[in-house]
Amino acid sequence: MKIGLVGYGTGGQHFHAPFIAAAEGVELSGIVARAPETVAKVRADFPDVAIHPSLSAMIAAGGIDAVTITTPPQTRRALVLEAIAAGLHVIADKPFAPDAQGARDLDLAAKSKGVILGVYQNRRLDSDMQTLRKLIDDGSLGRIWRIHSRMDFDDPATLEPGPTGGLLRDLGSHLVDQMLWLLGPVRTVDAQLDQIDMAEGPTNASFTITLRHDSGVHSHVSASKVNHLDIRELRAYGEKGSYVAHSSDVQAQAIFAGKRPVQDPAGWGYEPEANWGVLRTAAGEARVPAEQGRYHDYYAAFARAVRDGGRPPVTAEDGTRVLEVLDAAQLSAAEGRSVEI
Asked: Does domain 2-120+299-311 fall into CATH 3.10.180.10?
């Protein structure tokens, strides 16, 4: 699958291009970049990849099967629709629409054109999430009662400002998607948002959300970027025991340190042993070896879907369900009540 990348900011440079380059059955065939400093970064990182000034120019040049849209959220809708109209398969960064109705509109446009629209929810492929999924699937915890997921970053500079930005749509997109992936559809949402004043307007800078799933399980997700905390924690409770893990966001840290998955495919993405989670059951305590985290598997799976006409790793319907929860969370916080999906 020949793919073009639209946008080469932090997302495009660090969370897409290196994993496209490492994915089986995928070739990075073009990058859209305009600012001189961005063009210089592309040339340094991928000297043999064509650079285009716009999506329109990349489409006109031909030679691509799909595009990833990873520009700022307010620009994504128009670019996704342009790519769909050109008959290209599309991967849209999260959140891939301003709200659930906008997501449904994009899904309908893709289906009408007969192309695949996927959402880049790469954090299903985190090492800690893959490890927890394995414990759930193999019955180590028995019937799951509840999961707590906490992602606090001391990173105020990356908080998207203003009423249409905020942390809920940023990290909230990931944390909610992970819980839907692990535990299934959500019935009700209770949320609290913590706001700060920024030049662009009020901005939610931290949140807590309680999700009651159709299965009867409940999950609790929270995040912050302005409270001088840097903690990633997973806690799962089930009828057989519990599992607690504190991880280091190992793939992101490796990328920012200049490492790339293509350099060491077999050793990439494992949380170090010091961060292995602990499973506690009637048999005692056991440290659980971390599963491998492989964001590039997302792209390999998307390529297979394009080739075979199958289901992409994260569908537009999946993305819509996440946005339904985020829309409900905003309403819950604003009105101080539980909101049904």
From this structure: no
